[in-house]
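Hello,

Our lab assistant flagged a job as stuck in the queue for most of the afternoon. It eventually completed. Since we weren't sure the result was trustworthy after the delay, we are filing this so someone can double-check. Below is the sequence as submitted and the structure that was eventually returned. Let us know if re-running is recommended.
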Amino acid sequence: MTQKPAKPVKSVTKTSRFLREYMPDIIDPTPDLTADYSARFVIEAHPVHGRLVRLGETLDQILKAHDYPPQIANLLGEACVLAVLVGASLKFEGRLILQAQGDGVVRYVVADYDTRGGLRGFCRFDPEELAAQVAANEGSFQSLGAQALLGKGTFIMTLDPEDHGERYQGITPIEGESLALCAETYFRQSEQVPTQIKLACSEYTDIDGAPNLPVKKWRAAGAMIQAIAGDETRGDTKESFQHIRALFETLGEEELTDFDLPADRLLFRLFHEDGVRLSAPKPVHKLCRCTQERVEGLVRSFTAEEQAEMLEADGQVHITCEYCSKTFFVEP
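-- returned structure --
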């Protein structure tokens, strides 16, 4: 039987969706729900590059150290992904610290990434105010995003070189309902780099390890594209970026967090017509810098009278790390 040729699909959006629904699997899948990595990619036919990040076990460990409510876990999950997206692009050894702080129920959210792949993060919020805001938002079709939780405030990125070079800090107002929009504003105002970002965080049921004992886990993912500056050879790159951005806009949150869909296949579905080259992934892992020695040094920096005021009933000073929730005990 002769198969009728498919009708051509003219729109960029329809083309990408058509491929995701009907394109045969030409690459053997390598599902790994605990994969934690960042990977750079380049669009071969246009002066645009980007990065894809997926966090599984690493993010789950960071979030479960605090037992955050879902709204807070989502916010911190997206912040961690965003920190890796930007930090993994640094061209020096050091750290990128992403922070958003405001006057809302969330006082601040922090994600700290070092260029060796270490990641940590935490969030400070008022539980009672959050509960009231969640109750007031019940029945709404819109979930509580970054701006609703943080309120009016600032979005900050700090670059901290390892060689003790000068720190750089960029600050922009919190604009837009999501952290992705805050970051796009940052790049537009501070770096003058056309940037598009997508972030997604979700909780899922893991039945692979113990089918009879399903476990709830967190995972998150993000993607970023940026225009490469024009020059005499490239000319104006604005039109190229607009074309790739239209394709990028068709990427859904479910696809980002579907770890059964390998990165190379996901990118091929988005950018197959323009060619896309994916670099080797760089691992990401949970890393906290707190140590007994550092905590003891902190306590010793206080006067004897101040240390005496810190003592608990057992005669020791108790210090809990805000990032990993580990408690240290120091004798004065």
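-- support follow-up --
The delay was a queue issue, not a problem with the job. The result is valid. The radius of gyration is 22 Å. The first strand starts at residue 37 and ends at 43.
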